[in-house]
């Protein structure tokens, strides 16, 4: 039987570091206020002229190098992002695949906000195990600086830019496979975390909306903790996995308080929980692969290590995954 396997992991961090103190110059905020409420100390923003596809290109190129594959070996490129180069078309996946030298192959985007990478894993797993494709490049990427209102201290200090990518290939080794993925969504809470857009109607004056990230923080926090704990317990029970069996618990890096609350409820140790939110902020669809890459580059992640991933984001969407690492170590 063929299984889908994460053969590589890579990330790209833009060069411009923004510290909490940088916001003190323009906002009524402080390093202490931001750190206490979020755990974030630094985030990175794309340079002028850098597009979302440029960030995705850098991560995708390194992921292919680490997997030992060339552009001709990739059957599909799938990108998760809420901050694409264009509004819906062409997809960021199309632009990125061209930049990577991947042509005449399937390429498309998905929109699942901060849960995007979990959704990517589910899609890639299905394509590989059905025999539709043999090797897929998946990329979670965000240029969130392009959709932030820098006068709103409740949102603009939370987010950062970045990209994370991996190659998903077929394997016969179940202990190197994407074991299981759970997905969920509920549009009832669509306005809890969203980016509104302007709608135009023939014969009527255009009403402009602020196309920036808008969030109901307290409401989102409460639902996130409850939903993530429940979803992770479900996937572990279904697969007969105990906390001690997990090498790394890698949650979406949105807020340190959420991560700690979920980790405590699930009885994971500090050594098991991977935290990178203090370095990068919330990079939405890129946050989980960026966090995995940190563990990989620290030479902690080994072939066959079991990772438990979970995420919660706008939609509202959520998901969890049990993934054995199937790549070579550095």
UniProtKB/TrEMBL annotation:
Q: What is the name attached to this protein's record?
A: Beta-ketoacyl-[acyl-carrier-protein] synthase III
Q: Where along the chain is the active site annotated?
A: 114, 252, 282
Q: Please list the GO terms describing molecular function.
A: 3-oxoacyl-[acyl-carrier-protein] synthase activity; beta-ketoacyl-acyl-carrier-protein synthase III activity
Question: Which residues does the UniProt record annotate as the domain Beta-ketoacyl-[acyl-carrier-protein] synthase III N-terminal?
Answer: 108-187
Q: What class of enzyme is it?
A: transferase
Gene name, per UniProt, is fabH
Q: Which positions fall inside the Beta-ketoacyl-[acyl-carrier-protein] synthase III C-terminal domain?
A: 236-323
UniProt-listed Gene3D superfamilies: 3.40.47.10
The record's family statement is:
Belongs to the thiolase-like superfamily. FabH family.
Its catalytic activity? malonyl-[ACP] + acetyl-CoA + H(+) = 3-oxobutanoyl-[ACP] + CO2 + CoA
Could you tell me which pathway this protein works in?
Answer: Lipid metabolism; fatty acid biosynthesis
How it assembles, according to the record, is:
Homodimer.
Q: Which keywords describe this protein according to UniProt?
A: Acyltransferase, Cytoplasm, Fatty acid biosynthesis, Fatty acid metabolism, Lipid biosynthesis, Lipid metabolism, Multifunctional enzyme, Transferase
Q: Which BP terms does GO give this entry? A: fatty acid biosynthetic process; secondary metabolite biosynthetic process
Entry function: Catalyzes the condensation reaction of fatty acid synthesis by the addition to an acyl acceptor of two carbons from malonyl-ACP. Catalyzes the first condensation reaction which initiates fatty acid synthesis and may therefore play a role in governing the total rate of fatty acid production. Possesses both acetoacetyl-ACP synthase and acetyl transacylase activities. Its substrate specificity determines the biosynthesis of branched-chain and/or straight-chain of fatty acids.
């Amino acid at each position: 039987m063929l299984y889908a396997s994460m053969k590589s992991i890579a990330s790209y961090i833009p060069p411009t570091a923004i510290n909490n103190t940088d916001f003190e110059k323009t906002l009524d905020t402080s390093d202490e206020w931001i750190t206490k409420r979020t755990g974030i100390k630094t985030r990175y923003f794309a340079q002028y002229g850098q597009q979302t596809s440029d960030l995705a290109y850098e991560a995708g190129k390194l992921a292919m190098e680490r997997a030992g594959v060339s552009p001709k070996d990739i059957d599909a490129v799938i990108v998760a992002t809420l901050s694409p180069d264009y509004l819906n078309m062409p997809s960021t996946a199309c632009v990125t695949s061209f930049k990577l030298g991947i042509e005449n192959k399937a390429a498309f985007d998905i929109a699942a906000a901060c849960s995007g990478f979990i959704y990517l894993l589910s899609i890639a797993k299905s394509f590989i195990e059905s025999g539709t494709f043999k090797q897929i490049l998946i990329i979670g990427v965000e240029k969130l600086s392009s959709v932030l209102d820098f006068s709103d201290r409740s949102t603009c200090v939370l987010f950062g830019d970045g990209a994370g990518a991996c190659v998903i290939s077929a394997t016969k080794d179940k202990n190197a496979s994407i074991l299981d993925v759970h997905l969920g969504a509920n549009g009832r809470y669509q306005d809890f975390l969203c980016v509104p857009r302007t709608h135009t109607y023939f014969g009527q004056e255009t009403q402009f909306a602020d196309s920036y990230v808008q969030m109901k923080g307290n409401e989102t926090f409460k639902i996130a903790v409850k939903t993530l704990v429940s979803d992770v317990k479900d996937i572990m029970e279904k697969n007969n996995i105990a906390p001690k069996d997990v090498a790394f618990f890698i949650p979406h890096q949105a807020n340190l308080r959420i991560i700690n609350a979920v980790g405590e409820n699930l009885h994971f140790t500090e050594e098991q929980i991977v935290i990178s939110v203090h370095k990068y902020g919330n990079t939405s669809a890129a946050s989980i692969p960026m966090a995995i890459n940190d563990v990989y580059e620290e030479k902690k992640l080994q072939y066959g290590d079991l990772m438990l991933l979970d995420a919660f984001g706008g939609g509202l969407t959520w998901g969890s995954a049990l993934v054995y690492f199937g790549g070579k170590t550095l």
